Amino acid sequence: xxVTDLHRPRERADVHAALLAGAMPLAGGTALHGExxxxxxxxxxxxxxxxxxxxxxxxxxxxxAATASLRTVLDHPLTAPxxxxxxxxxxxxxxxxxIWSRGTWGGNLxxxxxxxxxxxxxxxxGAVAEIWTPNxxxxxxxxxxxxxxxxxxxxxxxxxxxxxxxxxxxxxxxYAVRRNSLVPSGRSASLVTGRLDPGGxxxxxxxxxxxxxxxxxxxxxxxxxxxTEAVRALPHxxxxxxxxxxxxxxxxxxxxxxxxxxxxxxxxxTRGEETx
Length: 276
What we know:
The protein is an alpha+beta fold. Helix content is 32%, strand content 23%. It contains nine helices and 14 strands. It has helices spanning 12-20, 70-75, 83-90, 97-102, 105-111, 117-124, 143-146, 224-232, 245-274; strands at 5-7, 24-26, 42-45, 54-56, 62-65, 128-132, 138-142, 147-149, 152-153, 160-166, 174-180, 190-196, 202-207, 214-218. A hairpin with a 5-residue loop joins β4 (54-56) and β5. The chain is globular, with a radius of gyration of 19 Å. This is FAD binding domain-containing protein. Residues 1-171 form the FAD-binding PCMH-type domain. InterPro entries: Diverse_Substr_Oxidored (IPR051312), FAD-bd_PCMH (IPR016166), FAD-bd_PCMH-like_sf (IPR036318), FAD-bd_PCMH_sub2 (IPR016169), Mopterin_DH_FAD-bd (IPR002346). It comes from Dietzia cinnamea.
């Protein structure tokens, strides 16, 4: 990679102009420097824009800037209600403490790696991606729709991820995480995460084992057997050195059962407390 230009934008128009000219966005830089980019000549330093890391919006939703590091998101007081879930999910990344300090949540999504734990976290939280477009507008897509394949996203030329918006309701939900890998400290081969909303709605998200995030929802928590069947019925399974697709399908089904059982236990305990 030979970079000849580093753009230091002061306003939004500078970002889009540089991106349309062929530069790539830079925040933490961990994904950017993790692979070769033969024809990359320019970078756009998004950190210079000074986006607020996290903020509560008027409707109670939580907004996380795309430039906020994993460590900042995890340790921020505003994420305290979901901190255990974020910790368990971010810990599925094959990353050192240095990466946690510099790597960004938004960058993990935009890298679009199947094993991107930041993608799993955003999808499970029901986050919405805010995207700046070159014409000055902001469009939104569900986080689950941002990544559409290994290394690919729905971002069009000149567009940049601005923030992730987490619904206020997700801050009071319950969560469970199950990960599988060929080796204890290796890259995730299967990651199944679940959310149980206060009203009983259950969401399962499958990543790492599939090319792009798969989201399954039920009005009430399914049985472990139903969750296993639904996950194993997914049509596409990822193949790389981290695991055979058939094995990934198998362990993802087991993980779905475990996640569902944990959430159901949580629901029963909650209802028991309410009747006292």
